[in-house]
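Bench notes, afternoon.
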Amino acid sequence: MSSGNTDQNRREVSEVDLNKKSDGAEPSLEMEEQEEAALMKEQAGETGQEQIPTDDIPQAEPGEIAKRAQEIKDKAVQIQKRKAVRNLITFSAVLISAILQAFVIQAFIRPAELLSGGFTGIAILIDMLTSTFGRSFPTSLGMLAINIPVAFICSRSISVRFTAFSLFQVFLTSGFLQFLHFEPLFDDPVLNVIFGGFLMGISIVIALKGNASSGGTDFIALYVSNKTGRSIWGQVFIGNCVLYCIFGMLFGWMNAAYSILFQFISTKTISTFHHRFDRVTLQITTEKADEMMDAYIKVCQHGISCVEAVGGYSRKRMYVLHTVISSYEVDDIIRLMREVDPHVIINVFKTEQFYGKFYHAPME
C-alpha cells in the first residue's frame, strides 16, 4: 500500500471523528473497530506481510490422521510384543535354572557333603556351622540375606531388569529348596562331583543365556566384566578356593578337595558355554566396500577399517575390511554382510589380546 493512500485513510478517519465530536456525540464502538482495522492493514502493508486466510492452510484429511494413529498404535503393539517375548524367555530361563540348581543342591551337594561355590556356598557353610551348635539357619534364608545387598550395589552398573530377574532366580531357588524334595542319585562321591559340578554350571549358563544370572558372585563377575570387558570366572574360582580352605579346616580336607573339584568342573562349564566377553576378528573380502561399511555402521557400534587389494586370480580390485566384535554378535553380522554381498568372503578368528576402546552392549 502506498504512503499516499495511507495518509488519505488517516484524514478520512480524522474527519469522521471531528464531525462526530462537533455533533456532540462520542465515537461509536463501530468506528473504533474500523480505525483499528485500518491501522492493522496499514502496518501489514508497510512490513510487506500478507495475511493468509485460514481456509488456504492445508488440513490433514480425517482418513490420513486415522491411518497415522493406527500406524503408531501398531508399532507400539509390536514393541510391547517383543518386550513380552523377551520377558517370557528370561522368565523361562530363570525358572529352569532355579529348579536345576535346587536339584543339584539336594541330589548331589548335600548327600556328598560338598560345598557349592559363591554365595550359595557361603549360605550352605553358615547352615552347616549353625547345625553343629544345635541351631538352624536355613540355606534358603542365607541366600536371600547375602544376595539382596550385593544386588542393590551392582544394579548401578548392571541394568535393573537384569538385577530383578537375577534376584527372582534366587527367590525361586530358595523357595524350591523349601518345598521340593529330590532324592540322591549316586552313592559314589566322585559321580556326585562330576555330574553335580556340570549341572550346576549348566544352571548358571541357562540363566546367563536368558539375560539373568543365579545371583551371588555372578553379580560381581558381571559387574567387573562390564567395567573391564574381560571374563573373570578364573578369579571367581580362586576366590571359591579360599572358601573351600575354610571349609576344609572346619569339616575335613577330603570334602574340601571334592568341593574344589566340583567347583572347577562348574567353572569350566560356564566358560565353555558362555562367551559374552570373548572377542573375535572378522576379515571380510568384498567388492562392495562402501555398501558393506554403510550397512555395518547402521546396525553396529564397533569400528571398521578398509584396505584396497587386488584379487590374485581375477586381478580385480577388491577390498579387505577388518573389525573386532563380541562373539555373540558374529551370526547377526555375518548374516547382514551376506545380504549386502552374497559373494563376500569372511574369515573369523579369535582375538586373544585387544588394546583400545571397545563398545560393550549393556545387559538388558
